[in-house]
Amino acid sequence: MSRAELADQARDHELSYREYLAAVNSAGPGTLIPAAVWLRLAQLALYENRDEERAGFYSARIQPAELSAPQREALERLRRRLSYRALPPEMLGLGDGNVSALRVDGDDLWIGTWNGGVSRLSLSGGQAKVFREGRESLVPSTVRCIEISASRVWVGTYQGLFSYAKAGARWQEIEAFAGAEPRKVEALRLAGGRLYVGTLGHGLWRQEAGEGAKGWRRISSGPLPGDFVTCLEVDGQDLLIGTLTQGVVRLDLRSLRLRGFEEAAGGLAARNVTMLLADPPRGLWVGTYGDGLYYWDRQASRLAHYSRRGGQLGDDWVLCAVRAESGTYFGTLGGGMARYVQGRWEVLGFREGVLSADIPALTYAAPRLYLGSLGAGVSVLTEERP
């Protein structure tokens, strides 16, 4: 048994890495390095040293045909993991690795966290800007949602609503959502040139004119959409409203008429809706807390249900979704991520390289998928088209 293998057996990973590397460096010209050695170097570099660049270098030198079946499986796991690039909290300048919101705006990735505020990362340069001081500060740290317009970045928090003017690099607190007991903003969506704001406890609001307290109007009709709005999505001329107790509600953006989604979906039973993703022109994805995922196929007038028990999801708490070139991705609480493409499902967890089991935020800018996690910050998957 070699010195490197003995160190491995003793779980002295630092010594093992040095010994494997020394064996490779001391090999004479033309000496064939066994694939198993390159594999172990790649594993130690990635899993112990967190050195993705070196792990990729070693991995590229492996001839899979020279490996045993278990070693080939280990290589596949390693290469899947290498397809995800980690953006840890320290790289983003944040003290919180619990990501709540992600949005791409040109070369900028905006990252909101549960308790660490908001950061803006330059995708080309890699520099992060955390807004904490002076006129460029976002005082509330409990970010829940982000929306981007041509001139502003809107940030919803549990301490109200804020906007960031791109031209002047200044934050502004929106008066209508402030006060001694500020409104908890859970969802934001631009539709028809106006910003719609979903809150927990104060229903749905629409920006009318200006940004003062009188420039906002609450949208309601009888019990709809209720006081607790969890998510918003644009579907043609409708704004779809996900709620905590009323299921899915439709708002006609022209007439502002509200109606329950049951008249379209034939009785969607889920009341606690967490995610909505339009799939034009065919249908709509509806994610729930604990009841899995639904798909309303309007062309076939059919409602399909997907769940952990059915093998389509890693968990029935569906938190977010995004459409990419390589498929539609769904983030869950406790079950990693699921991908749907051309009628096929794939559950993506630790074995497939996903860095966290909890994925509350997803966004996409071709060819990269950005995953926000609870605890592990942000990771980036460069997609392969199906």
What is the fold named in CATH at topology level of the largest domain? Methylamine Dehydrogenase, Chain H
Level-1 CATH class name of the largest domain: Mainly Beta
Based on CA atoms alone, the radius of gyration comes out at 24 Å
Mean pLDDT: 89
Observed structural traits:
7 helices, 2 domains, 28 strands, 17% helix, four-stranded antiparallel sheet, 386 residues, alpha+beta, Methylamine Dehydrogenase, Chain H
Describe this protein's structure.
With 386 residues, this protein is of the alpha+beta class. It folds into 2 domains: 3-82; 85-382, Methylamine Dehydrogenase, Chain H, CATH 2.130.10. It is 17% helix and 39% strand. It is built from 7 helices and 28 strands. The strands form 7 sheets. It has a 4-stranded antiparallel β-sheet with strand order 1-28-27-26. A 4-stranded antiparallel β-sheet has the order 2-3-4-5, with no helix packed on it. The radius of gyration is 24 Å and the shape is elongated.
